[in-house]
Amino acid sequence: MERILITGSGLLANSLLTRFSNSECFLTYRKNRPKIDNSIFLDITKSDELKKVIFKLKPDIIIHTAAITDLDWSEKNQSDTFNVNTQAVQEITNLAKKINSKLVFISTDSVFDGKEGKYKENDRVNPINTYSKSKVLAENYVKDYHKSLVIRGTFFGLKNGNKESFFSYLLNELRNNRRIRVPRDKISNGLFVDDFSQIISDMCKKELHGIFHLGTIDYEDNAKFAKHLSKICNFNNELIDECLFDEIFTDKKLVAMRPLNTVLDISKISKEIRMPTVEEVLISFSKKYKIMAQNADEA
């Protein structure tokens, strides 16, 4: 049986667990222990702990999802961010090489500056915040390993544990008939986390390697996307007010610069796996949300 080590215990890591049901999967955590048997405490910044876990398990595949993703926290804690997002990845890559394990590294669409959009895999990266810089440096270590897969993209989902996502916040506000502002000048072609994890699983089965961009076939700005989601979930999309991202940046006193247009060109992956449309990922998200809402009502 194939053995898979998934670092991290967030939205993507938990979704990935469901995609490898025929494999022996292990999930690492640092703060909140997942409710699964094969969960392992691991501080990825400690080299000895990494060696102990990886050499003991000798996984066929390492899927590295663990990372500091809070952009504003990263700006204020740059050393810690590079320790987790870059140096730990270098160590994991070296260990993967020693045991000849396939390494799947989850990067980000924000390795680009967001001035143009429709970025291809070989376009020049230009990170504009600490988080993105840490990911670019990590990519440089990973991509030189012949058994590696670097995945760029973004995904959304409901809250995981105590951490609330933007979409959890959006749905909660709409459900309670409260107005919410969403920027019309911020654009991406992100995927629902369950679709994202399924594609990663399919890529592993196809034994793909190199850098790949994942995303929807089409795309909408954040405001249109939010209204589209609201419509599918039968909420009142008149509650969504369009604005510019600069307004949110100022009002919320954000620190890290954000790239505005991170739409990725998905021509390369589309030759191997069909990517979904915006409509399809929103319907997928809606079904999951309604199931969770129903369970919450019955609890």
The secondary-structure element order is: EHEEHEHHEHEEHEEEHEEHEHHH
Helix content: 40-55%
In total, the number of strands is 13
The share of residues in extended strands comes to: 15-25%
Counting copies of identical and different chains, the oligomeric state is single chain
The side-by-side strand order for the widest beta sheet comes to 3-2-1-4-5-6-11
- General form: globular
Distance between the termini: 37 Å
Give the overall average pLDDT. Answer: 92
Number of helices: 11
Low-confidence stretches: 291-299
What does this structure look like?
The chain has 299 residues and is an alpha/beta fold. Helices cover 42% and strands 16% of the residues. The chain has eleven helices and 13 strands. It has helices at residues 11-17, 47-57, 71-76, 78-99, 130-142, 166-175, 193-205, 222-232, 245-251, 267-270, 278-298; strands spanning 3-7, 24-29, 39-41, 61-64, 102-106, 148-152, 155-156, 180-183, 187-188, 191-192, 210-213, 220-221, 240-243. The protein has a seven-stranded parallel β-sheet, sandwiched between helices. Helix 1 (11-17) links the parallel strand 1 and strand 2 (24-29). Helix 2 (47-57) packs parallel to helix 4 (78-99) and helix 4 (78-99) packs parallel to helix 5. The longest helix is centred in the first third of the chain and has 22 residues, at 78-99.
